[in-house]
């Protein structure tokens, strides 16, 4: 599935200068050479390229305190190269082509891509396999999930350390008071239940204003919600195992059944007509504004909608004395989409980290950043500034400033979240939306449908050659079919085009890798 939290300063003047230079984004070969040296206070310096979501990464009030804390704790200076997330993919491609001038640690987004695999085969990255088995020196990283690492393995070599994500992150949710208003008393369990809910949310005036101005499900041009729906029908996650072979899901009858259902809810107006133009960045707005009643994506997205209701005092339509809330269901038909178990990963480059000692410096930093102390610093910030400890010793977030203005903004972009995705001590005092999110994660993880071909796709030469292009053929055809621009014949034509442009070779190679895999 193509479907994805930062650091730096020194007590020494030299360290501060290095950081200010890196914040501007440039990386000269001379600066890398200088960064490789040990500074006057004895700490090694590593160079680190990461995406910037805010443009304020470690540059806010009290960020200097955050920088000092993580550098003292890890014993490492970090020379940052922040790159805008909007253009990060392009910047990564350019960085990989500049073989003699790379940061030591490079952040990659999503899953393995063809250009990363190609660079790995040309020897651009260190093989991390032996280091990740070193439990003594890397107590956190050595606990990485072998199944997840398989998706970051090229020709038998682990080339990246993943940024852990909840396996069962995707699922269905809906506005609780709207369900009450239209007479729905039980959470939907089947596709038919979901259809009935979406129909009533569209045509039974769930907000009680007497106007036909609502629709059932918020949708977006981002393909995630469609991929989730497909799992409800049993067609798998991109690929599925059938009779001992791996088959792309669009070749299954279940896939066609799922598309017919999606087309039905489109034709009946249960989703907005312009869904295919809605940007994922504004995807939650329909539910926040009271236009849509159901949300289908990551459970933390549903949690954020619920938190929005609380922060903005959006009242329940059935009980105005209370705020509106979301019910986080998760699976439908006892299925939901699994993700890869990670969202992005870190590569240690041979051009940047030229010696084994420098590789160990990078790994030491990444390992220490997974300790509770650093998880708290990166995700919660500074005590007395962005959070407080209550009488039970738990973290209570202040919510007084937006994430981009917090002292630790950007710091979490250097955390693998291995083995824990949140600190155990001090633990976070969780509100109702957070508790509901965690419960949904737990339900999802038991039934999440994995992509059985993920590790093989990473090593497929055919996928590197044509994968992105032919994937787009199927994605486009799916959208066109739902919107009535093509019929069954057009769908079959797209499937044939997929085969003719390399899909037939891809199936053959993936299954060859599958049959040769003795570890499966």
UniProtKB/TrEMBL annotation:
It holds the Pfam family SBP_bac_1. InterPro entries: Bact_solute-bd_prot1, SBP. The keyword Transmembrane does not apply. PROSITE patterns: PROKAR_LIPOPROTEIN (PS51257). The keyword Ribosomal protein does not apply. Keywords: Cell membrane, Lipoprotein, Membrane, Palmitate, Signal. Gene3D superfamilies: Periplasmic binding protein-like II (3.40.190.10). Residues 1-23 form the signal peptide. This is Lipoprotein LipO. It comes from Lacrimispora amygdalina. The gene is lipO.
């Amino acid at each position: 599935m193509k479907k994805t939290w930062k650091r730096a300063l020194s007590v020494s003047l030299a360290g501060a200068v290095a950081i200010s230079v890196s914040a501007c984004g440039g990386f000269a070969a001379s600066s890398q050479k200088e960064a490789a040296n040990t500074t006057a206070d004895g700490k090694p310096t590593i160079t680190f390229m990461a995406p910037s979501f805010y443009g304020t990464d470690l540059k806010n009030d009290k960020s200097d305190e955050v920088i000092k804390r993580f550098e003292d704790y890890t014993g490492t200076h970090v020379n940052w190269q922040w790159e805008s997330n909007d253009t990060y993919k392009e910047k990564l491609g350019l960085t990989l082509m500049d073989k003699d001038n790379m940061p030591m640690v490079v952040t990659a987004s999503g899953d393995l891509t063809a250009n990363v695999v190609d660079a790995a085969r040309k020897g651009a990255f260190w093989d991390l396999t032996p280091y990740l088995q070193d439990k003594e020196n890397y107590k956190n990283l050595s606990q990485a999930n072998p199944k997840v690492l398989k998706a970051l393995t090229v020709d038998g070599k682990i080339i990246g350390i993943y940024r852990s994500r909840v396996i069962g992150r995707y699922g269905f949710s809906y506005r609780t008071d709207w369900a009450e208003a239209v007479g729905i008393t039980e959470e939907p369990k089947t596709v038919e239940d979901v259809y009935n809910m979406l129909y009533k949310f569209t045509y039974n005036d769930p907000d009680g204003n007497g106007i036909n101005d609502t629709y059932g499900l918020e949708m977006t041009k981002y393909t995630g919600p469609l991929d989730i729906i497909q799992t409800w029908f049993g067609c798998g996650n991109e690929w599925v195992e059938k009779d001992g072979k791996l088959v792309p899901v669009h070749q299954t009858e279940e896939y066609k059944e799922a598309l017919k259902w999606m087309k039905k809810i489109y034709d009946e107006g249960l989703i907005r007509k312009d869904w295919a133009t809605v940007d994922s960045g504004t995807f939650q707005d329909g539910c926040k504004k009271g236009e849509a009643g159901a949300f289908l994506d990551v459970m933390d997205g549903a949690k954020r909608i619920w938190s929005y209701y609380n922060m903005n005092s959006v009242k329940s339509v059935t009980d105005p004395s209370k705020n509106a809330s979301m019910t986080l269901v998760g699976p439908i038909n006892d299925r939901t989409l699994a993700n890869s178990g990670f969202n992005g990963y870190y590569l240690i480059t041979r051009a940047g980290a030229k010696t084994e000692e420098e590789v160990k410096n990078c790994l030491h930093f990444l390992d220490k950043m997974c300790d509770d102390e650093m998880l708290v610093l990166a995700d919660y910030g500074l005590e007395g500034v962005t959070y407080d400890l209550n009488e039970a010793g738990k973290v209570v977030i202040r919510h007084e400033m937006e994430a981009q203005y917090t002292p630790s903004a950007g710091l979490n972009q250097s955390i693998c979240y291995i083995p824990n995705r949140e600190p155990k001590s001090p633990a976070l005092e969780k509100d109702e939306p957070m508790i509901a999110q965690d419960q949904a994660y737990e339900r999802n993880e038991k039934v999440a449908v994995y992509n059985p071909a993920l590790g093989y796709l990473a090593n497929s030469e055919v996928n590197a050659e044509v994968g992105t292009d032919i994937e787009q053929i199927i994605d486009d055809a799916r959208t066109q079919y739902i919107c009535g621009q093509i019929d069954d014949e057009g769908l079959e034509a797209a499937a044939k085009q997929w085969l003719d442009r390399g899909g037939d070779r891809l199936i053959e190679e993936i299954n060859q890798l599958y049959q040769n895999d003795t570890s499966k």
